[in-house]
């Protein structure tokens, strides 16, 4: 387990502020954030390439804050992979094993050969590393990082330069390797799809601070702040006033949508009655009712008109304007649902904002 | 006239300037003295002395330049800017002044003590090596630093994360990757040492068969109005220099910069 406690670090005018992070052994933890948010700097600090101003780093309870990079036990794959150009594929993979003073070398060599088989690198061993394709380079970089037998793999957007097909192939490979050998991955990414595919746990970083750290399902469905929702591109954020809290539900007045909404009471307390807060809903969680569908029993119904439809490839983005509302609602429907519903611009429809999919935001 | 053709014209002008100088020497070319001058005992001694002293001075320069260039290229430390600026010292101070500074040093108590207890530098062959070393060390460090600057630090970072100690990373990653740049720097340093005159004559003097390097031999022949002999020695120096620079070009042409 990697534990980061109160880590602060200054690089020129940029600060990483009070970073607290726990990476469970055997999990894949992804730090995601916009370009320049400090995620690579954090990774470099963990590896020992940057001196930190404050805080501690622990690996399985042992304080490694003051250890040099070669004694930390983290293997690192940078964005550009840094495959040694003067060495062959084989020499690259065995570089760490050959030149380090790690114990039990025989077992480690056996493990490295097994890894080479798993990654399908055997036919490439004698090749010059500069003559490899993008995907081959990624696999060599992974093999080189894992060969010394380190259980912790720190990846800095290593797949960012690959085309979609190759990228997905490597996602599967990384996942299957992790499942087979049980190593821990701490990865930095700005790619949402990659993050949600690979991660068990996600930490979202903006402006040098961790904004939210949670299992991926929670961070996906319940982003904690407006900044996070904004990073995920969620536009369905509405200002509401808490009208009444009764039992398990709270009713809210939403002038943005010119309606009343019901949400699970969650962390709202009775004394928050009358307060103005923000709620949000992911566009794929908004449900369009079929013309013949009985709306009874459905929550938070809105009547209105479809103003625009945009084809996004695998889904359609529907712009919905509720009757009498100032704001629009974005709805995302899969292709098959779009065809089944027979939607068209100008069409009048009823939509439901399912109460349990509405999330509360800290401003 | 287009910018392209104008700039090409200027580049040929530079070439023509040097070529003109070389061609003009043929006015004093005398084939009958060529072999005699070239294979005279005095000339052969000068060639041997020049090649030997330039090689030793280059090796000494590299020995000091490699670690200091690594420090300047890879680390931030107090005084780095000053050291970096001082590397140009031999370029801003004329070689004769540099030689004079060495003479002054060896007339100080410490310099006298060194000469009495270790090696005689003033008016001695060791003085040649010292003068060449002093004039080339700054250039050598600058060239090696440039070679190391070109290698992204990522390679070293990854190597260290694989459990390899910094010393080993230096010898297995940094040095092999900057090898070609270092060799090119060594060749240029050697060429500079070979052509060194001002500091050498000031420190070591111009004693035939003792401290007479090729540039000093040229000066000596010229001072005795032996123009034809001077021309032979100049051709000899040019040949050595051109062979060296051509091999350097071949070397750098083959160089493949993997990281761009």
How would you characterize the overall build of this protein?
- The complex is a heterodimer of chains A (363) and B (260).
- With 363 residues, chain A is α+β, with helices and mostly antiparallel strands.
- Chain A is built from 10 helices and 20 strands.
- Chain A has helices spanning 39-47, 89-93, 95-99, 105-118, 134-146, 164-181, 192-198, 216-221, 226-231, 335-341, and strands at 2-11, 14-23, 28-32, 54-59, 62-63, 74-77, 152-156, 184-189, 201-206, 209-215, 237-246, 249-254, 259-264, 276-280, 286-288, 301-311, 315-322, 329-334, 348-353, 359-361.
- Chain A has a 6-stranded mixed sheet with strand order 6-7-8-3-9-10, sandwiched between helices. A 5-stranded antiparallel sheet of chain A has the order 13-12-11-14-20, with no helix packed on it. In chain A, strands 15-19-16-17-18 form a 5-stranded antiparallel sheet.
- Chain A starts with a strand and ends with a strand.
- The model of chain A has no long low-confidence stretch (mean pLDDT 89).
- With 260 residues, chain B is an all-alpha fold.
- Chain B has helices at residues 3-25, 31-38, 41-74, 80-86, 89-92, 95-105, 109-117, 125-149, 154-161, 166-195, 198-204, 214-223, 227-254.
- Chain B is globular.
- The two termini of chain B are 35 Å apart.
Keywords:
heterodimer; A: 363 residues; alpha+beta; six-stranded mixed β-sheet; five-stranded antiparallel β-sheet; B: mainly alpha; 13 helices; globular
Biggest sheet of chain A, open or closed, and with what strands and sense? 6 strands, mixed
Q: In percent, how much strand structure appears in the residues of chain B?
A: under 5%
Structural class of chain A: alpha+beta
Mean pLDDT of chain A: 89
What is the rounded distance between the termini of chain B?
A: 35 Å
For the residues shown, what is the average pLDDT of chain B?
90
Shape of chain A from CA axes? Answer: elongated
Q: Count up the helices of chain B.
A: 13
Helix percent band of chain B: over 70%
Pattern of helices and strands of chain B: HHHHHHHHHHHHH
Kindly report the greatest chain-chain contact and the residue count on each side.
A-B, 32 and 22 residues
- By DSSP, the count of extended strands of chain B is 0
Considering DSSP H and I runs of 4 or more, what fraction of the residues of chain A is helical? 10-25%
Question: Which geometry of chain B do the CA atoms define?
Answer: globular
Looking at the chains present, what oligomeric state does this protein adopt?
A: heterodimer
Which blocks of ≥5 consecutive residues of chain B have pLDDT under 50?
none
Q: What is the C-alpha radius of gyration of chain B, as a whole number of Å?
A: 22 Å
